Amino acid sequence: MEHYPEELRTPPVTLVCIVGHQDLHATISTHLHSEQPPINTLALPDFSKISVIDKSPKEKENQLPSAYTSSGILKRDWLLKHRTRVPAVVAALFDADQLSGDAAQWLQVCTDLENLKTVARGRNIKLVVVIVVRFNSKDSITEERMVALRKRAEVDAKYVITFIPDDTSELNQSLNRLGNIFGELAVTFYRDEGRRVKTRLEKKNYGSIEFNVRYCFKVAIYAEFRRDWAEALRMYEDGYHALREYVLRIQFELQMIGTSTRLPAIQRLVEIKMVAELFHFKISTLLLHGGKIVEAIKWFRQHNASYKKLTGPTQVNFLHWEWLSRQFLVFAELLETTSATISSSALTVADRTSSDWEFHPAYYYQLAAQFLKEKKACVEISVSVTPIEADEGCDSIVPSLYVGQFARLLDLGETSVMQLITDEEYTLFALISEGKRLGDSTEIIALLKKANEAYDNFKSQRAASFCRLLMAKEYFLTSDYTNSKHHFDKLTSLYRQEGWVTLLWEVLGYLRECSRKLGSAQDFVSYSLEMAALPISPISSRQELKDCGPAGSPSLKHVESIHKEVFAVVREETLNDEEENMDGIKVNSDHPLHLEIDLVSPLRVVLLTSVAFHEQIVKPHAPTLITLSLLSQLPSPVEIDQLEIQFNQSECNFIIVNAQRRESSSISNIHPDRRVETVPVIQLFTNKWLRLTYDIKSVNSGKLECTYVIARIGPHFSICCGAESPANMNDLPLWKFEERFEASPTKDPAIAFSGMKVTQVEEPDPQVDLILGSAGPALVGENFMLPVTLTSKGHSVESGELKINLVDTKGVGLLSPREAEHSSSSDNLFVELLGVLCGPTQDNNDNIRKVQQSFGLVSVPFLNVGDSWSCNLEIQWHRPKPIMLYISLGYSPSSGAPKVHIHKSLQIEGKTPVVISHRLMLPFRRDPLLLSRLKRSPESGQAVSLPVNETSILVVNATNCTEVPLRLLSMSISEDEVTPKSKTKTTCTIQSGIDSDPSLLVPGEEFKKVFTVKPELNVSKLNLGCVCLRWRRDHESSKEVVTKQSLPDVNLEFPPLIITLECPPHGVLGEPFTYFARIQNQTKLLQEVKFSLSDSQSFVLSGPHNDTTFVLPLSEYILSYKLVPLSSGSLQLPRVTITSVRYSAGFQPTTAASTIFIFPSKPQFQSEPGKKFSPADQAPQQIPA
Amino acid sequence: MIVCIAVVGHQNNPLYIQSFTEADDALKLHHIVHCSLDVVDERVNNPKKSGPMLNETFLGLLYPTENYKVYGYLTNTKVKFILVTTDLDVRDADVRNFFRRFHSAYLDAVSNPFHVPGKKITSKTFAERVTNIVKSVSFHTTG
């Protein structure tokens, strides 16, 4: 667009002129410029300068022959004239003083006005008279002066206005007034002018078709001046069509008559195209600014179709292509500026006939570049045909008066004259000016770059790539190989990825040529190798592709020649015919060449290496097999001199040497310790795996991985290939789309499927015994000792470390899940590792020793072969629980050697040693009435009730439930320290006398101890404390363990009634004895008691049988019976049944309580004969009811 | 005249490309086919622009170059057919018809049990059949 002059590119702006009163010009022009629409101001300082806008003066110069004058279509400077020199309105500024002043001043005003009128009338310019008045003297001008002025100026009253500059609000008003009047008058002016020209058009009042076009243009421009875009567009279109008609007529004339009437043919064509371009530019701009993109594109298509064929004679073809290119470029630029403002969403309505691409500037940029290329070619042809000699005549050729015309400027002293030139002269001129211009290549590249970027933004990567390709080719043509290579390089990845072999072939061919030109052996060799290994299928080579650049058509023949050439270079052989091309490309001792091929390299097709270990796990120093497979897609067999296989453990590296090429391979630089294998020949055939299997011994344990395979070809060329595992080998790029036989890299299909380039080398077998002495189940509470013994059998143990881990057998860990939430105090642990007791021999200072609750780390001292070492683990169980003990020993057989590990585990049960149970009993034949027992069945209750102030009996049992004998040291009831109520007094007296003598409990045996409990305070709950059992294993060394178990709380109750049965411990047949039932009322209430006695056959009895009686408060009632036994043996006493009416509680003594043994005769007791129980002594007092 | 016909696979890789031109511009045709894949991509990825054609295999005119017209066709298995013709005024129906015939030829070619899906089509029979179809079709210009 920059080719066009400014006045064409921007919409025309109204021009007004102000004369006189220079001090106000800046204010007025600034204001007018900021008007909407803006108005440009031509400010003339005084009236003497008025002639600039006059019609007459300038058309004198550059006179052309009269025949010529009328033969142009558009005058070059007509628009500029109207935009800068011919105002629509002229405003004359007069000072009020001048009007009201003396006659001389008035005369001056009249003269000035007169001159102005003359000038204005010649161009129909509208006149405005402005009187500048001071704010103070607003009314100083007399009415008759105003009328006189108006008459002089011959304008309407409203076009004579006052202007007050020295008051802000008044100034604004004046400016606005001025602006409005200017706007109004300008519109009138341009309308009138337009109408004038249009009338001529309508009346067909013009001499030739050129005028038709010119008039259309003028009307359109006038319409544009008054912003009537629709009219302007219509007139431009009319003009365009008229021009088209003109073209057709000329063509017709040429065909019919063979001559043209006016201008020579070439120049006329140039002029027409120039004008057409101008019209088209205006139309496109208007359409696009109006948002009619679809119409604009249609219009452009039509424009292109109309003029594309008008190439003109061959020698000036290039002018046509340049013109065409410019059409596309300008349209692209227009489209670009428009699409920046109009969002692309407005384009969704695109009709199906036009492609989406036509909406993108990139498309036009690309075509502009294409045509410019065409032009470049034509220029070259024309230059070769027409010899250019420097002709001074051409220097004087300048653009003439009309758009698109050129003429010779003849300097005739004072004046100069335009002279017509012939077509030959013009052609020469065009060619010479072409030579002076900057190279087209730069322009083509710039256009392509724009297209490339635009396509990229539009995410059309392939089209963008195509532009880049054209760009790179252009660089190549201009011998800019660095840039060319840069761009070609960027292209390769897309074509590789999508497998467009032919396109890739072309690009690589260029790249190869660029690297040859740049002398880069590395690039040359790698591009050549890649090209040689491309899949050139017979299908694509069947069709000859001609324009493939320097590499020629992709065919097997070419591929092979490239292969031969590159291997000649790397083998440093000389090919005579290629000698001169290869000057920069040398591989020798000064320039050794090293190529690297990794997983993503395009050169994988050249050499693919797959390495597979036959075993996934190997023992150290044990041989294992490794298969090395090589594949190449190069068209001819490749012989490799030497292969070096590298591992991550460099001791394993080895070299395979081709026996036939032993002398050429650079074996001298090989490490002398390296293993060298020799094979008769290493030769790779196209698409055929070369498989080599060797055994290999690993030295160190850990990972053994094959990293690289280096192939050496020739003395100074090597290819370093990253080794790949056959199990996860990717397809070969490009070749994966080909139908080819795909063999597996190894013969064994299992290895081909799962083989890896890495293997795991195990640790050497440990030669140390780790023995865990198991001592049966552990008992809860004790410090369980577990001996661990290390015995070295073949290795000395250095920097050994013992790791101890206690793990729940369920694998949950040693904390119960709920307790784990709390802080892990030792109470929460079920099992705890307390410590490790090592043998007394070593000092503990340098031992690393770390013991945690379930984890321990102990260092092992140095052990020689045959030595042993042991330690004891001290573990305590808090709960019965099986755990898993893991012990692992890590050591080095010798200093610095890798560690060897031994793992042992042992499951240990934790068992409860003793089960403690207890029983509470009431004293014999004494039964307090416990009301809580009445309410429920005797056995179901959880909490046991004890009568207050009565002695009860507590029996504690301890049963050994282990499988080992335990020695019981003592059993006691200690007050529970948890209970804060120390005032609760419990009297406990130990009755058994086994304290002194620890009893041995064999497995399953039960130990009982009896305590008496007498609650003395009336509290509802009584804490009995806890049983404290001290025991140890029946073993000399075992330690004493205290097991505690707290007893459950008991309820206390106040018994209202207590019934005591009294009876001698035994009787003698026939001897009477007394039997009492004592009913004790502890309440302050009178208790009604019923009783009855059932007869017994074994006794004769006397006493009350059946009655109801009352027991007085806090007293007792005694039922007394006299019994005479009638038989001997264990006999049932007559049963007394007592019922308390108040509590509706019945009492019947238990069978045990009412059984008595009767001796047949009086027994003779040896021990204490004097102390004989006599029930009669204790005869209770009879309490009257 | 049809100057080039191409079958393009899932990775936008050419499965089959044949040009029917005596001139030296076969490679240029390859480029045109390759560039037109951009349009196919755009059509497929932005189906809303081409609303009613959602289930249509025929993609229509892809790419107007100066001297050629490029048409596209997308099979159910997302294999693309690209046609380049020098006839600048072609009826869609004719192109559709051509593609239909070409599609059936393609189906027969890939139904060959020795053909591996995703690999290039090397069948000579297919090539001959395509040549016959191309020769038999002439797009009648309407204008």
TrEMBL record, chain A:
Name the record gives this protein: Trafficking protein particle complex subunit 11 domain-containing protein
Highest taxon listed in the record's lineage: Eukaryota
PANTHER family reported for this sequence: FOIE GRAS, TRAFFICKING PROTEIN PARTICLE COMPLEX SUBUNIT 11
Residue stretches making up the Trafficking protein particle complex subunit domain: 268-533
Stretches the record annotates as Disordered: 1164-1185
UniProt source species: Deinandra increscens subsp. villosa
Pfam families referenced in this protein's UniProt entry, alphabetically: Foie-gras_1
InterPro entries: TPC11
UniProtKB/TrEMBL annotation, chain B:
Natural source organism: Helianthus annuus
One BP annotation, GO: endoplasmic reticulum to Golgi vesicle-mediated transport
GO CC annotations, alphabetized: cytoplasm; endoplasmic reticulum; Golgi apparatus; nucleus; TRAPP complex
CDD domains noted in UniProt: TRAPPC2L
Quaternary structure and partners: Part of the multisubunit transport protein particle (TRAPP) complex.
Signal peptide from the UniProt entry: none
Keyword match Transport: yes
Keyword NAD: no
Main location per the UniProt record: endoplasmic reticulum
Keywords assigned by UniProt, alphabetized: Endoplasmic reticulum, ER-Golgi transport, Golgi apparatus, Transport
Top-level taxon in the UniProt lineage: Eukaryota
Name of the protein described by the UniProt record: Trafficking protein particle complex subunit
